[in-house]
Amino acid sequence: MSINILKENNVRNNRLNANALKKVKHISHISHNNENFYTYELIQSIAKFLLDRINIRPKIGIICGSGMGTIADSLTDRHIFPYETIPHFPVSTVPGHEGRLVFGCVNGIPIMCMQGRFHYYEGYPLWKCAMPIRVMKLVGVTHLLATNAAGGLNPDFEVGDIMIIKDHINLMGFAGNNPLLGVNEDRFGPRFPPMNKAYNKKLREAVHGAAKDLNMSSIVKEGVYSVIGGPNFETVAELNMLRICGVDAVGMSTVHEVITAHHCGMTVIAFSLITNKCVTNYDDHSEAKHSEVMEAAAERAPLIRSLVSKIVSYIDENHLICTDEIFSP
Ligand SMILES: O=P(O)(O)O[C@@H]1C[C@H](O)[C@@H](CO)O1
Question: Is 122 a catalytic residue?
């Protein structure tokens, strides 16, 4: 390669790096600082910013998993806030996560929906990934429905199955990483929140009921979700270890949101769409791919929308029955 071409390449690379740095600086999201700078008052100001601009008061929050953004697209009377237009919000960087808050209605019931979530592997500390849950809380949301794409580890699970999450194993928590790290904000919840009832039993039963009504019981399962930090998919040995530990599906999200929501007294229901079967055998040459995850999500989009719509109606009609499981902040 001639000296001139090398020089041109250098100039070009420097320009690209400078642009990337500018973007990172602009979105100011790369931080591994353990100090949660989202004070109660700052979260209040974000909630006020949103409430000042919408005329609905949602009690139900939804988080769209990878490739499941059509849940938000199907809301009626939508008011959309791209994350970069909301003060102090991080931005989404993952394909299949549009990166906006969508307010609107499902069956006339007001909803606050994250069309795109934040993952630890994007470079955000967990307290930052989970911050929108506290915004939901101060907007008035009492019930959270979290969805995600996950790899199926239980050999009985097929691609396209939906696993209602009955419990989780917080692997990142085992390593000391938790969205509640740092000084506790008592106005959100207690220093040491219990987690044995994180996934509301009545709502889990209601989802089975909804699945039955929709004739989809055969694809709706229940199980334990475990979170890894990502972004790499798991090794064979890691997956075999998780299976021995009782894990049915593995993913890279949701747990930090559920912990934060349960901490501040929200009632939680969550489900995983099984988008790929985990490779637990060295002779199996298939590999997990994000494109496959997105395809499986697109395929199931209509069924997921129907299920979400049933769950939302159930919560709206019955939400008072769950208040015994809420501890007040
Ligand atoms: O946001 P979710 O948990 O649905 O996304 C999963 C985990 C990774 O972000 C990605 C891998 O394909 O999908």
Answer: yes
